[in-house]
C-alpha cells in the first residue's frame, strides 16, 4: 500500500501559515451579515491557497482531504460543510456525472474552480432528511423548449439547510429532484440550477428564507429554506453520467437496474462526503485535547501545605486520559480509512461501508471526549478563543450533516447481517489474563458474534415480518456500535496501552451486557477496573501530557489564551486595561 501522508506537505504548510493570519484568529463581527461575509472571505482565502481542480476530485481526493484537515477550519465550524458542499458535493457531482456533456458544463466547472460562484447542494427537504429517497422536488421536461422545469410541489418539499440566504454571494446548486417525462416518473436525479447571479441576486422563481430564519445554534453560515416555482434550466443541466440519459425526444434511457440504483448513482459523492466532513474534525480534535491538557498543566490548585497543578489530581488525569484515548482512536480510525480509500480500488458497497463506519464512529466516540475537554477547562474551556467550543459544535453538526449517526449505524448493522461481514470469533486463544490485548479483542469479537446471533433470531421469529427490522433496531444499534469499536480498536494496534484502555473502557461502559451474557465475571471486572486506572494514569503521564508536540501544534496552542505564556496577562491585554 502506498503511503500518502507526505504528498501534500507543502500545501499543508501553506494552510497552516494561513491559519495563523489575523483573519483566521478571533473575530468579533458586529452583525450576522458581517459574520457570513467574513466566512465567505475566509473560504476565498482557503480556496486561493488550495487551488483544487475538478479533476483532483476525480483522481486524488488526498488534496481536498488535506484542505479539510487544515487548522484554517478551526476558527469557524461553518467552513467545514461550506467547503465540503462546494468542492465535493457540487463540483464533485458535476464532474462525476458530466458524461459526454463536459463541454457544455465547462463554464460551470470554471466558475466553481475559481470561486466565481460558490457551489451548494440541495438534497434534504423539510419532510425528508435521512429518508431522502422519498424526496418530492419535481423536474418536468419541456420537450418543445428543451428545458427542465424545477418545482417545489408541497411545503414539505422545500429544500432545507443549503447555503443560500446571503444576498451577496453568487451561487450555483446541484438540486436533487424527481424526473418526470410525459406524466411518468423516473427516479431522483441531480440538476444544475443557478440560484444567485454574479451580484448575489436571486434568479427568477427561486424563493429563499432570510438570513435569520434558519436559527441553528452557533452557525456563521447562511443556511436557508428554499423553494422552486417553475424554475427553468437548460437541457444539459440534467446530470445522468454514463448510466442515465434523457433524449431530446423526452425518453429516459438507463443502464441502472432499479430506481434505488439510480438514486445511488445520483448521490455519487455522498460516501466521500462523509470522509470529507470527518477530515475537517481532525484539527479540532487535536486542538481540543491539547488545549485541555495545557490548561491542566498550568492551572494551580491550593493543597494543605503546598500548591500543585490540576494535572496532579487523579480524577483530572483519568478524565483527560480517557478523552485523549477516545480522540486518538477517532483520529486513528480516520487515518486508517483515508489511507485505504485513497490507495485501494473499492466497490461502491465497500466505500459506502467504510464511509459509514468512519463517520458514525469518529463523531460518536469523540462526542463525550470533547465535552470532557470543555468541562475540565472550566469557564476558559467555553471561550471561542480557546478553540474547544468550536470542536464540540462542529462535531455535533457533523453527526447530522450527510446522514445522522443513528441511521448510519443502522446501515452498518444491515451490512453486517445481509453481507455477512461479521468478523470471525477467536476460539482458540489461550490467554493469561483478561487485561491482555488479545483477550480484550476476543471479548469484542464475542460481543459482535453474540449480538449478530441475537438479531438474526429476533428478525426470524418476529410475528410481524414487515416490522421485524424496526422492532430490532435497538439490537442493530448495539451490534453496529460493537463492530465499530472493534474496527477502531484494530487501528490502534501499534499503541498497546491506548488500545487496551480503549477496549476496557467499552467493556466497562457495557458491563451490564457483558455480565448478563456471562462473558466477564465479577472478579474479572475488578481486574479490568484496576488495570484501566493504572494504564490511564500511565497514558496521561507519559503520552497525553505532550499531546501538542505529538500532533505538531505547539505553535497553534500558544496562540490561545490558555496556551499563551500567561493566561491572566493575556486576558488583561484583551480587556485593554
Ligand atoms: C451543519 C449542517 C449542514 C447541512 N447542510 C446541508 C446541505 O448543504 N444540503 C442539504 O441538502 N442538507 C444539508 N443538511 C441537512 C442534513 O443532511 C439533514 O439534517 C440530515 O440528513 C438529517 O435529516 P433531518 O434533519 O431531517 O433528520 P431526520 O431524518 O428527521 O432524523 C432525526 C432523527 O431520527 C432518527 N431516525 C431517522 N431516520 C431513521 C432511521 N431510518 N432509523 C433509525 N433512526 C432514524 C435518528 O435518531 C435521527 O437522528 C445539513 C445539516 C447540518 C446539521
Automatic annotation (TrEMBL):
Superkingdom assignment: Bacteria
Domain Acyl-CoA oxidase C-alpha1: 274-416
GO MF entries: acyl-CoA oxidase activity; FAD binding; fatty acid binding
SUPFAM superfamilies the record matches: Acyl-CoA dehydrogenase C-terminal domain-like, Acyl-CoA dehydrogenase NM domain-like
GO annotation terms (biological process): fatty acid beta-oxidation using acyl-CoA oxidase; lipid homeostasis
Pfam families associated with the record: ACOX_C_alpha1
UniProt xrefs under InterPro entries: ACOX_C_alpha1, Acyl-CoA_Oxase/DH_mid-dom_sf, Acyl-CoA_oxidase, AcylCo_DH-like_C, AcylCoA_DH/oxidase_NM_dom_sf
PANTHER family the record matches: ELECTRON TRANSPORT OXIDOREDUCTASE
The protein's name in its UniProt record: Acyl-CoA oxidase C-alpha1 domain-containing protein
Species in which this protein is naturally found: Acinetobacter dispersus
